[in-house]
């Protein structure tokens, strides 16, 4: 019998990281991708993670989502401490409680849009709740495209299928890694509006990595990383404030390199 994942925490924090470190490799060639990150991600909020290339954004997202094991520290989703779950329970938590949206849409080409959307439920042996499925499909604007296969859909429509697939299990948190990275600006804006809508109307928690200050402007909060460390955050961000903060990060990073000869944390 499947082991049910632990209950959702009620302290308003959907995901918490403490002392989170991730090192790739050993010895002199080791890379410290994350270096002692402490962060709380509020439930029912849209958080963007930003920072220069190589600052650890994707590594952080993967560690928070239980896709990658930590070198040190803890990650909690709801009241589940990921480090204490064995592989089976971790798989169940990811399957039942977490939704993913990736830059590449990762749809199965042989399945229709509808079959792709309900795939996580099918894998879990669960039937879709028809009312909820209708609501999710309507929210992503795909009601008249459900029988199309991915090759018959535009990139924006494919990503909207992927967002619907992430929402259909009513996960505690949706992790999105550069969800607009493969889209033109109009389709990207639609996907961002959709994620925003999921937060506003479904009380969904969304955590998104992005390079795009316009995309980050849709979030409630922007978390800035540099060299594997949390640097600062912005609440109610605008594109301009995000751009200013990123420019400030580059100055700090350049100063660090000038003084030490290498970037901090490496
Ligand atoms: N599997 C891996 N093996 C070795 N090093 C890795 C691995 N994955 C990431 N790294 C290194 O960890 C650091 C952080 O990488 P990460 O992909 O998290 O950064 P990022 O901020 O998402 O970068 P980008 O914006 O370019 O996608 C980089 O120095 C990267 O080269």
UniProtKB/TrEMBL annotation:
The signal peptide stretch is none
The record, for Pfam families, names: ABC_tran
Q: Name one GO cellular component term.
A: plasma membrane
PROSITE patterns noted in UniProt: ABC_TRANSPORTER_1 (PS00211), ABC_TRANSPORTER_2 (PS50893)
What keywords were assigned to this record? ATP-binding, Nucleotide-binding, Transport
Q: Where is the ABC transporter domain?
A: 15-252
Q: Name one GO molecular function term.
A: ATP hydrolysis activity
In the UniProt record, does the keyword Nucleotide-binding occur?
A: yes
In terms of domain of life, where is this protein from? Answer: Bacteria
**What SMART domains does the entry give?**
AAA
Name listed for the protein in its UniProt record: Putative ABC transport system ATP-binding protein
């Amino acid at each position: 019998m499947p082991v049910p994942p632990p209950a959702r925490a009620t302290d308003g924090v959907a995901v918490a990281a403490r002392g989170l470190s991730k090192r790739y490799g050993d010895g002199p060639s080791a890379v410290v991708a994350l270096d002692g990150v402490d962060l709380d991600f509020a439930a029912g909020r849209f958080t963007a993670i930003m920072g220069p290339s190589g600052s650890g954004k994707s590594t952080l997202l993967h560690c928070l989502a239980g896709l990658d094991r930590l070198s040190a520290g803890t990650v909690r989703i709801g009241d589940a401490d990921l480090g204490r779950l064995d592989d089976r329970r971790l798989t169940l938590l990811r399957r039942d409680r977490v939704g993913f949206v990736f830059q590449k849409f990762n749809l199965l080409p042989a399945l229709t849009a509808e079959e792709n959307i309900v795939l996580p439920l099918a894998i879990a042996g669960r039937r879709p709740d028809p009312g909820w499925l209708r609501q999710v499909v309507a929210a992503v604007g795909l009601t008249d495209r459900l029988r199309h296969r991915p090759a018959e859909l535009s990139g924006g429509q494919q990503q909207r299928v992927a967002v619907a697939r992430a929402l259909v299990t009513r996960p505690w948190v949706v992790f999105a890694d550069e969800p607009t990275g493969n889209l033109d600006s109009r389709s990207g804006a639609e996907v961002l509006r959709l994620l925003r809508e999921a937060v506003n109307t479904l009380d969904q928690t969304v955590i998104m990595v992005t390079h795009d200050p316009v995309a980050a402007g849709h979030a409630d909060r922007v978390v800035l990383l540099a060299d594997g460390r949390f640097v600062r955050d912005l609440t109610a961000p605008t594109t301009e404030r995000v751009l200013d903060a990123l420019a400030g990060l580059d100055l700090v990073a350049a100063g660090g390199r000038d003084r030490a000869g290498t970037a901090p944390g490496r």
